Every structure is written in C-alpha cells, then in structure tokens.
Amino acid sequence: MTKKILFITEDYICGGVATVSQTLKQAINLDCNYQMDIGLLNSRNDYAGFKPVFILNQHEAKNKVMKLFRLFSDSLKLSRKISGYDIIIVNGDLFQVVIPVWIFSLFKKIRVIAWVHACLDKVKYYPNQLIKSIHCIGLKSFTQIVCVSHESARSLAAYAGAEISTRIEVIYNPFIITELEKALPIADLDNRKIKIIVLGRLVAEKNFALLIRALSMLQNKNLQLIICGEGSEKNALIEEAIALNVYEQLLFVGQTDNPLGYIAASDILVSTSTTEALPSVIIEALALSKVIIATDTGAREILTHGCGVIIPVNEPAILAQAIEKVINDELLRKQLIQNRHLALKPFMIENVIPYWLKTFARLFENDAKNLY
C-alpha cells in the first residue's frame, strides 16, 4: 500500500525551501511506495509554479493577538488536513509551523519529521525566550529531526540542547545537477562588464553591504554587481552604494523567476551571509561552473576538493583581495572549478533520496517493533 507523506511550510515565496521541497516531492513520487504532497499555512499568491493540496489561511495575521489565536486555530484546521497521511514533514525552522502540528500531536499520535534548514542558534527568529522554549519543546516531541547540513545540526544542538542530537539525522538537500547545468544565460546584460552576482532576500543576515564595501575598494571600474532579490534592506544598500560612489556599478534585478539565468550570465558568485546552513546558490553556481567566493558560513561543506574561495565573515578588504585575485589569475579560476563534479556529488538527487527513503522505512519499522 502506498504511504502518504505531507510537507507543511508557511508559504512558498521563493527561497531554498520552495525549490528543494519541490525537488524532493518529484523524486519521492517516483517511488511507488510513497506519495508526497505539500500544504501551506498562508497564501501570498506565489506558489512557485505548483498547486498546494491546501492553504489554511488566505491572509496573514496582522497582530500578536491574531497570530496567537491562529496557532490554535491552525492546529484545529490541520486535524482535518493531516488525516490520512502516514508521515508529516514540517519546516522545523518556523515556530508558526511547528507549534500547530505539535498541538495536534498531543491529541493524536502521528509520525512527524522536523526538517531544519537554518542555523537556529544564529538567526534571530525568536528573540522572545518563551517562544524559543516552546519551539524547542515542539521540536523535541517529534519522531525525527532532519538537518540539511552538519553545520545546521551543530547549530540545532546549541539552540535546543545537546540531548536533541540523538534525534538528528543529516540529509543534504537534493539537486538535479544535470538540469541546473542546462541553464541559459540572461541575454540582455552588458558582456563588456565583469559580472559579480549575489542572490537572496535583502535582509541583514545576507550581508550584501559587505560586497558593496569591497567593491568600493577595487580600482577596476569595469565590475558590475548584480543583486537578485527583494527585502527590507534594499534602501539601506542603495544609500551605502551612493555614499561609497559605486551605485552606478550596481544592477538591482529584484525577485526573479530565472535566478539560474543570471548566475549563468555572471562570472563570479559571492555569498556574503553571516549565517547559512546549506546555501543553495553555491550549489547552483558550482553546477554552472562559476567561480565562487563565500564567507565561512555553511559554504565549507559544499566547497570541497579545492572548489571556491572561503573568506572570513565581515572582512571587506579580504573579500576585495579575493575578487581581484580570481579576476587576474586565469589558472586559479580553472583550478577553482576543475573538481566541481566531486564537490557536487553529495547533493545529487540520486545520492540524497535513498537517505530519505531509509528514514521513512525506519519510522515504520520502529512502529512495528512497538507493537510487540
């Protein structure tokens, strides 16, 4: 009999979770033993090209009272949606996803996997200690925790307590590398420029200001910085670029449905984040044979076998030196990508999915043992 799996997250506005959960769903559904669906708590009118099996709420809660009420109302709504599924996977990063499922699990035994995509001890999701404590209780109550990297696993132990480590399994996010390699470059960019790209939400932890500061230290004015994404820090980035006299070198393309096209058209991808668990853009850029410079926040697990340049966080002068070096050294550029297939191997979908299938099988085996 086919086992039914449901992944629940808050919404589907781009980002790595949207991409990898769709990839996981497609691969799992190829196995005749399982069927995977995806459900959303909220609608923001962007489903990343797919239709969820349900959307609990058509509008976001606007104040704290309504958000608190929604946690409980969502648990009641989920009781009707979850019925019939054998395994529930929740986006473990998000309090608003974990808690309704946890509340429901208090009244009915269900198999729940928390899928953690962030470094929870470093991101400032929950400055309120009470909320953080309840979030940790919810995570600890679930059957299994899957972290997307060893970095996120270490971070979760620091966030929720070392005892949670016995419940953690590390499974890298799956990527269809052969499909990534087919991406065609955006055609309407200036080919005379040396193009450096950053991608992601324009928020503090992405730290794109670091690259703007590094750009201002470089004498080469033929550099163009392409910024893909939207967010609360956009005006601050523009103001900093103007103050440092590099605004004319910036190209803001906003949130795009073709990020791979911009990566393919660029020469260097830079990841400037202050915290990352497993940055998808680095894997995507590596698949497209791009030179990568990344801060030491999650990139080290990807940039193995001599691929890429890893630099300290918040060191604009070191970043500027790294950019200058890879631009001026053709041999170095070749060396940084020559072993890319070895570095990409752990993230290839055919190497990742068996771990998920073993995890699912183990949950059912444990249930069978508990009957005797």
From TrEMBL:
Species annotation: Aquella oligotrophica
Protein name per its UniProtKB record: Glycosyl transferase family 1 domain-containing protein
Classification via Pfam families: Glycos_transf_1
Domain Glycosyl transferase family per the UniProt entry, residue ranges: 189-339
SUPFAM superfamilies: UDP-Glycosyltransferase/glycogen phosphorylase (SSF53756)
Alphabetized GO MF terms: glycosyltransferase activity
Matches recorded under PANTHER family: GLYCOSYLTRANSFERASE (PTHR12526:SF630)
Stretches that traverse the bilayer: none
